[in-house]
Amino acid sequence: MTLLTDRAWSHRVSREEFEAFRDSRSHDGARYELLEGEVLVTPSPGPLHQHVIRRLMHLLEPALPAALAMLPAPVDLVLTTREGETVVQPDLLVAPWTGEISRAELGPALLVVEVLSPSTWRRDLGVKRDAYAAAGVEHYWVVSPTLPSLTVYRLGPDGGYREVTHVEGATEASVAEPVPVRIVPAELIR
Length: 190
Known about the structure:
With 190 residues, the chain is of the alpha+beta class. The protein has five helices and 13 strands. It has helices at residues 15-23, 47-60, 121-125, 127-134, 185-188; strands spanning 31-35, 38-42, 68-72, 77-81, 84-88, 92-98, 105-106, 111-115, 139-144, 149-155, 161-168, 173-175, 181-183.
């Protein structure tokens, strides 16, 4: 199988090829995603990245309706876009939760959160954001731990994201949906 590098537009892999490739490397600790036929390999996130996700989960959990599940990476989110199937592992996702725990299934994602890092920020703000929009994920939040900041996007009628809120530092964001919550970016990194 051909390994891909950034912008290797002339070589694409199918979902089946991707799954076989990922299965053959299941114990290496890396994160594998399939985006528009391109295999993306990301190193394990750092401590600050994980701390921000933990803090976000702590804030969101009390306000989460029982019909919704919140899951951190690594969990596959399969998106269908014009380019075909995409398999991503967002840092945090909120989706309808159906079935019993032993046979739980997720419905379509309502919210995807990405925490920016030096190795992923271009993808998170570019091709991954575009893939989430193309698949109809209504809410997309981006957290920058280094600034710190929070940007909240909502899917517009044209199928693209529109910025709803952007706050930095000690400024509080009050978000109404899909989970009502107040977030202060500086508190996510303390």
